[in-house]
Amino acid sequence: MNYKISKFITNLIYKCTQQPINILIAELSTTGSLSRDQLWKYKTTKMYEQIRYLNRYNKVYKDIFTNLDIDLQKKNIDTEFYKLPITNKEYYHVNVHASYDDKTKTDMRSTSGTTGTPFVFPKDRVAACYMDAMMYNAYSWHGIGIGDKQARLWGRAINTKEKLIQSVKDLVLNRKRLSAFEMNENDCLKYYDKLMRFKPKYFYTYSNALYQFAVSLEKNNRDGKLLGVSIAICTGEVLFTHQREKIAEVFGCRVVNEYGSTENGIIAFECEHGKMHVMPTIHLEIENPDENGMGQIVVTELNSRMLPFMRYKNGDIGKLLIDKCACKRPFDIIEIHEGRIDDYIRCPDGRLVYDAILAYTLKGYAIQFKAYQESLTRLRIQLIPNEGYDKKAETRLKKTLARYLGDEMEIYLLQVKEIPHEKSGKFRYFVSNL
Ligand SMILES: [Zn+2]
To answer: Among candidates 312, 371, 283, 416, which has minimal Cα distance to 90?
Structure first.
């Protein structure tokens, strides 16, 4: 599709759903030329609005503010803000059903369960629109606009209905989706042919998946540069230096790192000068930093309302740097340490299958799970089942997994009541002993 048509349809959808995307993009683009003090003022004004909104519409938060003696009238809300408790996913599981008086339009969203537990939460339209606007704004640093052709090396829905919705979305948004779950050499060559016809402007991809794609093309003497991709946006996991170099070499493109989540959208994004900047829609703190400044990342999404991600500890570790950047934007610079490192399941037939397949497949069956690859032919999965999980569901689940991992993989499903966390406190849903 021509990018102008996709841009037109996308803008029309925003208009019909009353989301002022272009106004928000304009607002966010002005933040790039603010001074550090002006940016802080912009952010604290947002914090103030968020707290006042919750005080008005949310009974649970009203009580929290009263108990903490938060001064809602005081203008220096930044000091009041740090009285608020640090939260996490479990905290919002409890508070998510808190009663709202407001009838703001809300959509439900869900993480794919990459930490082993799908997290379902409401996202009001304004917050969602800010997330999109921030994305387009950050992408524009690298010359990417609404409607530009995207090659998406990513997860693919498992069930038919979700697949259909995904296909329509991809068509409208001018994306070509290539399943990161099926990446043997034959698949990669097919993807190459598809992309030669599609001619994407940029990649949006899991870092590992694009690296694997690059290696496959090189091995099979395909010229990645002929695809004409100018930017590869890598996200979802740590982007290692050797991966970055290989991707840049094979595709002849610039490699850009994105750090974000389904909950909060983009948290930090790499600029033209290679620094990871914290987005103006996010206030980021580091909790209990060690002597090197590394600590737990705590995020406040400044425009969230229906589920206020305030001082939200997302499980990642990083540090704020005091460097200045040549791009002159006033945004903080961050270094992420051991973000979500994903892995591959090794199949008996020699294939490597991206472990996110487990999260996508088990989503409908389990509240939480953890999988262990004990040998090349044996995968043991502990799961806390959803309501309605029975023998039939178990058979269905095994069949779906066999489709991706091959019939030779023995899959053992074990129902449990609890799944312990790693010693580090982080949760990994896939552990390989190979
Ligand atoms: Zn910069």
So the answer is: 312
Write 64-68 long-range contacts (CB < 8 A, 24+).
none
Q: Which of 387, 340, 394 is nearest to 367 (CA)?
A: 387
282: its two tokens: 């996010």
* Vertex 139 angle, CA 135 and 309, to 5°: 25
| Gap from CA of 327 to ligand 1 centroid (Å) | 4
Tokens of 95: 């508070």
Distance CA 54, CA 70 (A): 12
Q: How far is the CA of 66 from the centre of ligand 1 (A)?
A: 40
- In the reported structure, the alpha carbon of residue 325 is separated from the centroid of ligand 1 by a whole-number distance in angstroms of 5
CA of 306 to the centre of ligand 1 (A): 32
Which pTM was predicted?
0.81
Least confident of 110-119, 156-165, 180-189, 409-418: 110-119
Separation of 337 CA from ligand 1 center, angstroms? 19
Rounded distance from Cα 322 to ligand 1 centre (Å):
12
CA-based torsion, 49, 52, 58, 63: positive or negative: positive
pLDDT, tens only, 84-103: 999 888 787 766 555 566 66
Ligand 1 centroid, distance to 385 Cα (angstroms): 45
Q: Which CATH class is domain 344-432?
A: alpha beta
CA distances from residue 187 to 21, 79, 125, 197, 414 in whole angstroms, order as listed: 37, 54, 37, 16, 32
Distance 277 CA to ligand 1 centre (A): 7
94 is written with which tokens? 């409890």
Q: How many angstroms does the Cα of residue 268 sit away from the middle of ligand 1?
A: 11
CATH architecture assigned to 1-340:
3-Layer(aba) Sandwich (3.40)
Delimit the domains of the chain by residue range.
Answer: 1-340, 344-432
Q: How far is the CA of 32 from the centre of ligand 1 (A)?
A: 10
CA distances from 22 to 5, 260, 354, 373, 381 (A): 17, 22, 36, 47, 46
The pLDDT tens digits for 389-400 are 999 999 999 999
Residues by chain with Cβ below 5 Å of ion ligand 1 = 271, 273, 275, 325, 327
